[in-house]
Specification:
Layout (H helix, E strand, L loop, with lengths): L1 H4 L22 E6 L4 H13 L4 E5 L2 H4 L23 H7 L10 E4 L4 H14 L9 E3 L4 H7 L6 H18 L3 E2 L1 E4 L1 H5 L4 H21 L4 H4 L3 E7 L3 H22 L12 E5 L12 H14 L4 E3 L12 H16 L14 H23 L3 H6 L2 H19 L26 H16 L2 H16 L5 H8 L4 H12 L7
Parallel strand pairs: 1-2, 1-9, 2-3, 3-4, 4-5, 6-7, 7-8, 8-9
Helix pairs in contact: 2-4, 5-19, 9-11, 9-14, 11-12, 11-14, 12-13, 18-19, 18-20
Length: 499
Amino acid sequence: MSRELGKPGEFPYTRGIYSGMYRDRLWTMRQYAGFGTAEESNQRYQYLLSQGTTGLSVAFDLPTQMGMDSDHPLAAGEVGRTGVAISSLADMERLFEGIPLADVSTSMTINATAAILLAFYVLVAKRQGADIRKLSGTIQNDILKEYIARGTYIYPPRGSMRIVTDLFGWAGRELPEWNTISISGYHIREAGSTAVQEVAFTFANAIAYIEAALSAGLAIDDFAPRLSFFFNAHGNFLEEIAKYRAARRLYAHLMRDRFGACNPKSLLLRFHVQTAGSTLTAQQPDVNVIRTSVEALAAVLGGAQSLHTNSRDEALSLPTEESARLALRTQQIIAYESGITNTADPTGGSDYIESLTAEIERGARDYLNGIAGMGGTLKAIEAGYIQGEIQSAAYEYQKAVERGEQVIVGVNRFRMEEQRKIPTFRLDPAIERAQIQRLRELRASRDQHTASQCLDRLEQAALGSENLMPPILAAAAHTTLGEISDRLKSVFGEYREAA
């Protein structure tokens, strides 16, 4: 059977991208965290590292994601609520105080403002004395899925793609160990897609990024080894395992046959997985621990390189420290007690798994061929095709739940009249006032002439064709996230979704 399927670490990598897989190295255990001020999030990071987390994963609040400083009128009530508020280099320094960036891998879930947040991060690392060429981590930087499934975009697609590809080019030279994008199927699945659609639309976006980078003059093997992916671990256990196997195989063929990649590292689908937030329920929240465990197990059996496990209380609030620890322990039990890490691709060879793998690959290829026939991903997004496919799938799923055909334990079956209350996280409203005060003091005390010069220089670069990262980096040392974003907006414009 192994001769028919191939071996782990061999093209087309259906069975895993490394021959030893977890026998040689476990996946990176990340816990996605960020809330309130930089100081509060720093304390959570320090705690998670002390409990065995092997990589940090930063959640940013909505104003930060949307290019707004914490004192922007539209930021009112949202500062620090869904993630940490980062408006300046000073905020980023507080976020990582006491954490040597040279020694830790950091993932930042940020898209429209990815280049600015990476600039802050690099400047903090330099101030710590780190060799930035050795920094390791990932910036999500996947703006296309924002137009498709999530909505935290700022600029129109083509301006956004300019920033993405400029970051590719700059980081390829300056941050060779950094993953310059994490192309995300996670949010596509959270919006209601099927497993096939998650793979297909994620790779459709990947194709668009690769083509944009090639058009900008980059060579495929110069940037492809640093591409990474971000998938969802949903509730259908065997389908999810097959999904990751199909994605690896499809990607290897895509990179070799369509784009002519020659470097073996360019063919490897390296991906992070997060368990599905959309499967968590406010009803009987303790049951979410079991859901997350099943989903995490599927990710590991599917060969993930990095994993975040959701906390039981996330349908109710931001995770408490206790819940975050329990979520981390879930990964540690799988890693150290289950025994499934002793062999690569344990489910490979199962008739059902192999059949599902082939079925998902065929379905994803069909979608990719259809999108190509429409003129590519950008045109498919602009026409609303991809969004419409996801919305239709979400509608059908919800109807199945309402009819009782899709059982959700505790929601449409096995309900309980009395719910056990669990402690939930409460955000202190005073943090918003403190964050705004600190930001205003920073603006009042800086060299205004230097700040203005940096922003003017950035605008000139955006109007031309030079790489945007050096002027963004220079501006990040003296100005705020909102000021940099607004100056880019003055050149690229602001995206409005068609009615």
